Amino acid sequence: MKSFLIFVVILFSFPALSQYQIGHFNVTFQDPDRGNRNIETEIYYPSVSTGNNTPISSGQFPVIVFGHGFVMAWDAYENIWEEIVSKGYIMVFPRTEGSIFSTDHQQFGWDLQFLVTKLQNEGNNSSSPLFNGVGNNTALMGHSMGGGASFLAADSLCENGNGQLKTIIGLAPAESNSNGVSSINSASNVSVPALIFSGSQDGVTPPIDHHLPIYNSLSSDCKAFISIIGGGHCYFANSNFNCDFGESTSSTGISITRAEQHDVTFDFLNLWLDYTLKNGCADFNAFQDSLANSNRITKEQTCIQNPIPSITENGGVLTSSISGVSYQWYLDNNPINGANSIEFTSITDGNYTVEVSFLEGCPTTSSPFNIATNNILDSIKQKMNVYPNPARAFINIEVSEGLKYEATLYNLQGRILARKTNESIMQIHFLPQGTYLLEIKDLNSNQRIHKKIVKENK
Fold first, then answer.
1. pLDDT of res. 366
2. Count of beta carbons in the 10 Å neighbourhood of residue 5
């Protein structure tokens, strides 16, 4: 099941600005389903000014719920929130399960899962800095232990049909197999688009034992695995004593700097977030281009794209070969107002295309389909007379006897106003002022001609 962007009915308001100040506040939520478990949370958001509890910027912003690594804290990921929040995202960091002595990965996953829906309530809370600023689209993201816990959280959300979760992103995600759970097993139930980053020299969570099995287990129709050449485990975050110490005893051959690993990560991460959370189809194309051409990574990818429609024609009626949730027809690359169905009756000569949108994923567009009258039988033209044109109170459409025909009058949106068959004279009275298209079709050959009709005021 693809799980991407929604194009109809629901409209998201994403601000046009590219850089924001960063606001921050701390809040402790309680999960009533787990005995009012306290979840202390740090929240960073686009703000009109930098500081604590400052007003949120105008607009509604997608949410990223982020899980920290083992014996690490949220403040090790300042590099990530400074990069991402400034581009128009809310980042949410639970501070739970930070103990070195007793860490419950399942509880941490449930914390992340709880925050996905809790943040929507926060957007409706008039006393919150996030009031009226929380968009529906949400990502789960995490590093190391938090990356693995993200898959535990996504498992339940996908199985329960949660509509907010649009993507999951793991930074060196660890297989969390304590307390009877497994991130690898949970990934098999995750169907949203997924992106996994790995450092090729990671000895803390070796890719072959952690990152790759999680990736391979995913049920996502669109997933990508990016291995940063020469990268490490802890280099996704800022320097952190606990993580760096662990890496110094396990990883070898790291050949890039922390700043270089950040750059590679953000080159792909920003495009992926804009695609999955802001419906940026052009960003997906740029992501694909970088994936194909970057010499700083190796990669794997499986991504089933939406089908491309073709156009069939029968008696002037154009039909998209692919069904979607919405349609837009174009004539010579210009959108036709009101032409939003799977079928459209051609109203004049030219190149027609149809754009089909889907419940998930980017819309696709057909190749042009040409409608031309230069091959129409001259005899049809000779046997048809339309008068008066411009019309005033009425128009007459007169066709010679012996021609088996169908005459159809359309407005410029392709709506049928009148249709008659094999009548020697068709008369239409009292048309509103405007421009119309008349189609005469020879029923023997299915060839047709079009004529513009102009209605003037009396």
1. 95
2. 24
pLDDT score of 404: 76
Question: Which mean pLDDT values do the consecutive 10-residue runs of the chain (458 residues) have?
Answer: 33 52 97 97 97 96 97 96 98 92 90 95 94 96 97 93 94 87 95 97 97 97 97 97 95 98 98 95 94 97 92 87 95 92 86 91 92 55 76 77 77 81 72 81 72 77
Query: What is the residue type of 330?
Result: Y
Buried b (16+ CB within 10 A) or exposed e, 81-102: bebbbbbbbbbbbbbbbbeeee
Question: Distance (Å, rounded) from C-alpha 123 to C-alpha 45?
Answer: 12
The Cα 143–Cα 197 span in angstroms is: 9
Q: What pLDDT does residue 376 have?
A: 43
Q: What is the identity of the amino acid at 411?
A: N
Q: Are 156 and 168 in contact (CB under 8 A)?
A: no
The position carrying tokens 């270089």 is 260
Query: Looking at residue 15, what is its pLDDT?
Result: 43
**Which residues, other chains included, contact 82 with Cβ-Cβ below 8 Å and sequence gap of 6+?**
22
Cβ 283 vs Cβ 275: under 8 Å: yes
Question: In one letter, which amino acid is 132?
Answer: N
Q: What is the DSSP string of 141-203?
A: EEETHHHHHHHHHHHHHHHTT-SSEEEEEEES-----GGG--HHHHHTT--S-EEEEEETT--
- Buried-exposed string 235-271: b where 16+ CB fall within 10 A, e elsewhere: bbbbebeebbebbeeebeebebebeebbebbbbbbbb
Cα angle 287, 289, 295 (rounded to 5 degrees) comes to 100
Report how far residue 351's alpha carbon sits from residue 296's, in angstroms, rounded to the nearest whole number. Answer: 43
DSSP annotation of 307? P
Q: How far apart are CA 301 and CA 172, in angstroms?
A: 17
- The three-state secondary structure class of 87 is coil
pTM comes to 0.75
Q: Tokens 């429609």 — which residue?
A: 309
Quote the CA–CA distance of 350 and 294 in Å, as a whole number: 41
CA distances from 18 to 53, 87, 131 (A): 21, 5, 21
CA distance 32 to 36: 4
Strand order through the sheet with 343-345:
311-314, 317-320, 343-345
Q: How high is the pLDDT of residue 2?
A: 39
* Residue 457: predicted pLDDT: 73
Question: Cα separation of 77 and 84, whole Å?
Answer: 11
What's the one-letter identity of residue 434?
G
Q: How far is CA 87 from CA 53, 274, 357, in A?
A: 19, 9, 26
Q: Which of 160, 67, 157 is nearest to 107 (CA)?
A: 67
